[in-house]
Write a structure and sequence with these properties.
CATH superfamily of the largest domain: Aldolase class I
Number of domains: 2
Order of helices and strands: EHHHEEEEEEHEHEHEHEHHEHEHEH
Radius of gyration: 21 Å
Bound molecules: S-adenosyl-L-homocysteine, iron/sulfur cluster
CATH architecture of the largest domain: Alpha-Beta Barrel
Number of helices: 12
Strand content: 15-25%
Shape: elongated
Strand order of the largest sheet: 3-4-5-6-9-10-11-12-13-14
Structural class: alpha/beta
CATH class of the largest domain: Alpha Beta
């Protein structure tokens, strides 16, 4: 609700159909509305000319299409772009667009802060503020499409999409905000909304086991697991949620997930921390842990977080670690650091805003 109006960015196609029913409109109106909003980026009901004038007037009175306000928009020299959205009460969430040849990936946030509190994560160290609503998650994609000129290309010959992939790797733990994440995922893959392939939408999770099973049943998309350690003792320290859902349970959930997943592998993310989780012995332990589970590894250079006491592994160590996994036939990539000059790493910019809002208002940060 914005000023008593229902924000249509927050309704997946089923919810929009129910809303249309309440307005006395047939189901196909929901599909038309959805196309206007998500495929053409339209926020002005007057322009939706295939809807009856009386319905447009009703929409004007009772509904709106509004993304959260943007308080910063930065573009790095490598083309990585980052927006910071104001979600109220001094909280900001970030969204990052990463252009690559042949694809464009949008990294979205699912919560303001995060309750999992991983020791190496800037978002986790900010604590948990609140879950984002569907309109705030979808608003990031809708706004980014606008900012990247996607909606201007509608109706032209260009079929290239600016955003081809979405990853839930921004702030927050998506599977601890399950209902909103699920509706947002449904909109992302719906042919009447964003129409992305399930394979190109990835949920990244620190390992909320029961919700991995729910996702498998409700809306299987690509799955990334933030692993970070080969044994429970270390993972309990780095990812406190491991104490509730230890590795054996997590890996069993991954195996179950694969039965219904759109891809035939799980991606394991692994932040490389100097002297903590980056030894050859730990790489061998990882191999034993995953066994014959079809998986890929993505080794992530650590973005230093002040006060964490953790350091990034040397590039030589990262390569050696990757080699141990690669030698056993596991596809292992090392993530390129992108957007270094704009603090594009997870949680960094929003953390900076949060710290500063303790003494100044968010308005003063607009630049
Ligand atoms: N909460 C989810 C998704 C958001 S975090 C999850 O943990 O999977 C997205 C990714 O960024 C995770 O793999 C996380 O471990 C990683 N990450 C967090 N802090 C980081 C840092 N300081 N440097 C590098 N990667 C980090
Ligand atoms: Fe939360 Fe993910 Fe950060 Fe852990 S890494 S604190 S789960 S956002």
């Amino acid at each position: 609700m914005v000023n008593g109006k229902v924000n249509l960015l927050g309704l997946d196609v089923d919810a929009l159909t129910a809303q249309c029913d309440e307005w006395g409109q047939k189901a196909f109106r929901a599909l038309q509305l959805s196309q206007w909003i998500h495929q053409r980026g339209c926020a002005d009901f007057e322009q939706m000319t295939n809807l009856a004038k009386s319905f447009r007037a009703r929409l004007e009175e009772t509904a709106c299409v509004v993304a959260p306000p943007v308080i910063a928009d930065r573009i790095a020299t490598d083309g990585t772009r980052k927006w910071l959205f104001d979600v109220g009460d001094g909280n900001a969430v970030e969204t990052v667009f990463i252009p690559e040849t042949g694809r464009g990936t949008l990294c979205v946030s699912s919560q303001a802060g995060c309750a999992v509190k991983c020791s190496f994560c800037s978002t986790g160290r900010q604590g948990f503020a609140r879950n984002l609503r569907v309109d705030e998650i979808i608003g990031q994609l809708w706004y980014a499409n606008h900012a990247l000129g996607q909606y201007e290309r509608v109706g032209t010959c260009s079929t290239d999409r600016a955003i081809t992939n979405v990853v839930f790797m921004g702030m927050g733990e998506p599977l601890q905000n399950y209902a909103a994440t699920l509706s947002a995922l449904r909109l992302m893959i719906d042919d009447h909304a964003y129409g992305l392939s399930r394979r190109r939408v990835t949920v990244s999770t620190s390992g909320v086991v029961p919700m991995i099973d729910r996702l498998r049943e409700d809306c299987p998309v690509s799955l990334a697991i933030s692993l970070h350690a080969p044994d429970d003792q270390l993972r309990d320290q780095l990812v406190p949620l491991n104490r509730k859902y230890p590795l054996a349970e997590l890996l069993a959930a991954c195996r179950r997930y694969l039965a219904d997943a759109p891809r035939d592998f799980v991606t394991f993310e692994y932040v490389m921390l100097d002297g903590v989780n980056d030894s050859d012995a730990q790489a061998h332990a990882l191999l034993r842990l995953v066994g014959d589970l079809p998986c890929k590894f993505n080794l992530i250079p650590f973005n230093p977080v002040p006060g964490s006491g953790l350091k990034k592994s040397s590039p030589v160590r990262v390569q050696a670690f990757a080699q141990v996994l690669g030698d056993e036939g596991i596809i292992t990539t090392v993530r390129k650091t992108r957007g270094d000059d704009i603090d594009a790493a997870c949680g960094q910019l929003a953390g900076e805003v949060r710290d500063r809002t303790r003494s100044i208002t968010i308005k003063e940060l607009v630049r």
